[in-house]
Amino acid sequence: MLLMPSTNPSSIAKNPFFKSFSIRFEDYLGGIINDLDASVQDNARYTILNGGKRIRPLLTSICGYPDSHLDDIYKASAIVELVHIATLIHDDILDDADFRRNRLAVHKKIGTHDAVLLGDVLFSYGLELSTEFNDSRICRIVSKATRKTCSGEISQNNSIGNHLVELDFYLQFIQDKTGELFSAACQSGGVLSNCNEDSMDCLGKFGLSLGLNYQLFDDIIDAFGNETSAGKTLGTDFLSRKPTLPVIALLNEATIVDKDLILELLNLDEISDLQFRTFISLLEKYSILDLCLSIFEEKFTCTNTLIRSLGDVVKEELLTDFMSGFITKLNVLDRLKTSNFLALHTR
Q: Are 71 and 99 in contact (CB under 8 A)?
């Protein structure tokens, strides 16, 4: 895996602003919840302050550094995080998930009806906050990202059970579903730091590419990972019949006879241990792990190339440092090459 070297690999870690950003950002989020209507504050607090990596806010702060007012950075960061949290609420409802970050999913706590409306409140609140900037571009950026994210989710839901989805179509809707908010986070910071048009375009493309990387990584880990090291239940995408990179790649590579067998397995309401092992053996037969890793590496290299096209030394260094956080993820993927992934999914 290729990772672009940084001239200062600890630039974020050593910068006093970024060292304190996460703490101050949590305080800011807690404060703006008080501006919501009293009827939703408790449930909003339960959901919003339930942890998370806060990747999108960090990207906004990086792309807004160093030429933005602090209050503007926190507000723009909060906006993209509110939209993200709203999508998670709706995702959990659609997936009938029981937990989110080791806590009861909010729809299990307050009911589906109120949870849907809570998600709507957070969407609306994020867009409301985006109108408070003098530059209307932030509102347009966030509004577009919200629309595209929801459209991507619809495309994914419409594709459940359709195992013959083309790879290009799949990449497009996961880019919409995941990448658009990354893009909005980056471009919002770009607006605040007065980036020129070329840099704004590059930041947007970087965000889209980064979001794609995250989803492809999750696809690969779900199919080939170790639950102990991943820290979550794996194989869920296969069981829920969602199209994923490994399944799409397998169907593209398989012979007609094997493709019929694969589709038969994918369409079963319940799958036995033997049938599950048969599916895993087909992944091995067509070297799908290596193929998926090759696709991921190509996309990851593209993301790093976009950083080098920014024309802003400070942002290039900070984003390169941010991307170094992928090292752990890349190490996990590298270990998959030498691990016996058949054993990982023996049930």
A: no
CB-based contact 174:212 (threshold 8 Å): yes
User: Given its phi and psi angles, is residue 268 left (phi above 0), alpha (psi -120 to 50 degrees) or beta?
Assistant: beta
The per-residue pLDDT for range 76-131, each reduced to its tens digit, is: 999 999 999 999 999 899 888 888 888 999 999 999 999 999 999 999 999 999 99
What amino acid is encoded at 291 in this protein?
L
Q: How many CB atoms lie within 10 A of CB 102?
A: 7
Pair 223, 238: CB distance under 8 Å: yes
Torsion, Cα 119 140 182 81, to 10 degrees, reads -40
Cα gap 38→277, rounded to integer Å? 52
| Extents of the domains making up the chain | 11-344
The Cα 282–Cα 181 span in angstroms is 35
Q: Is 21 left (phi over 0), alpha (psi -120 to 50) or beta?
A: alpha
Which tokens go with 223? 């199919």
The token duo for 123 is 């969407």
Output the CATH code of domain 11-344. 1.10.600.10
Degrees, nearest 5: CA angle 299-123-64: 55
Helix, strand, coil percentages (3-state) for the chain, rounded to 5, are 75, 0, 25
Radius of gyration, alpha carbons of the chain: 21
230 token code pair = 């991943």
Task: Name beta bridge partners: 99.
Answer: 104
Provide the pLDDT for residue 227.
46
Q: How far apart, in whole angstroms, are the C-alpha atoms of residue 198 and residue 204?
A: 10
pLDDT tens digits along 1-33: 333 333 344 567 677 888 788 889 999 999 999
pLDDT tens, 191-244?
Answer: 999 999 999 999 999 999 999 999 999 899 888 876 444 333 445 566 678 889
Own/partner contacts of 193-197, CB < 8 Å, gap of 24 or more, are: 193/63, 193/64, 193/65, 193/66, 193/67, 193/68, 193/315, 194/67, 195/63, 195/312
> What integer pLDDT is reported at residue 234 of this predicted model?
40
Residue 279 has which token pair? 């599916």
Distance CA 304, CA 171 (A): 18
